[in-house]
Design a protein that fits this description.
This protein is mainly alpha-helical and 122 residues long. Helix content is 27%, strand content 3%. A two-stranded antiparallel ribbon has the order 1-2. The chain is globular and about 45 Å long.
Length: 122
């Protein structure tokens, strides 16, 4: 397993972050947003569990979900444990109660697009 390497994202430009992804990287690492707190590089997971407000009818309310890695997230849609978020935008806009999954509700549409572009580059 240690010999396996992630497939480079097709969202990279010549192997590097695009301008939008670079802006998204800065948003991702902002302490007031909180993404990197639970998804720290290089694994982009802290290997812990949290209640992020996504429990469904067949889940136990308040039960923590493991923090998934964000590496190669560009190819793992749909998202959440039950596939209820078709896109990363859905993760932040439709399936994101009370900012329990990062404090992203205050981001502008452009900032959210940049954050998503960064995530898709991982």
């Amino acid at each position: 397993l240690e010999s396996l390497r992630p497939v480079p994202s097709p969202h990279l430009e010549n192997g590097c972050l695009s301008a939008a992804a670079e802006r998204g990287r800065r948003i991702f690492h902002r302490a007031d947003i909180g993404c990197a707190g639970c998804h720290p590089p290089p694994l982009f997971t802290d290997l812990s569990g949290y209640d992020v407000g996504t429990a469904g009818d067949y889940d136990h309310a308040g039960e923590p979900f493991d923090t998934p890695t964000l590496v190669e997230i560009w190819r793992t849609a749909p998202y959440w444990h039950d596939g209820s978020a078709a896109t990363l935008h859905d993760v932040f806009l439709r399936n994101h109660p009370n900012d329990q999954h990062g404090h992203t509700s205050r981001l502008s549409a452009a900032e959210l697009d940049d954050l998503v572009e960064y995530l898709l580059s991982l």
